[in-house]
Amino acid sequence: MPRVSDLFFKTAVVWLILGIGAGLQMAISGDHGAFPAHAHINLLGWVTSAIFGGYYALNPAKAARKIAMIHYGLYTIGLVIMLPALYLMLHGGYTAIEPVVAAGSLIVAAAVLVFAFVVFSGASVRLASELSPATR
């Protein structure tokens, strides 16, 4: 499995654990005010990261490109900024942290645009396994 796929899957599992924790916290406390943050943790953190990992696993030539790791780093940094801030804003009532949520959201959006570039661009790296014996 390509390294970027492995990283996306491992990161996805971390977000899954955090999402389950947020859900349990809401259920135990009876305060469901942070449910949008819980949904974002699960959808953007767990599901979308896992989908990115799957895409790169199915497209190893694209996973081998440097831009794939840039995508991973940018997306992960965006989530690390946005999701805890969103949770604090909704659960803790820290409305002053909204600009941090916005900044993280913009980073995530930029990472999604990088992914779109990866998807729509041709793979510039050919793996040795894809080369015919005559070209090796």
UniProtKB/TrEMBL annotation:
SUPFAM superfamilies for this protein: Cytochrome c oxidase subunit I-like
InterPro entries per the UniProt record, alphabetical: Cyt_c_oxase-like_su1_sf (IPR036927)
Transmembrane intervals: 7-28, 40-58, 70-90, 102-128
Keywords: Membrane, Transmembrane, Transmembrane helix
Entries under Gene3D superfamilies matching the protein: Cytochrome c oxidase-like, subunit I domain (1.20.210.10)
Highest taxon, organism lineage: Bacteria
Keyword Electron transport assigned: no
Protein known as: Cbb3-type cytochrome c oxidase subunit I
Origin species: Mesorhizobium opportunistum
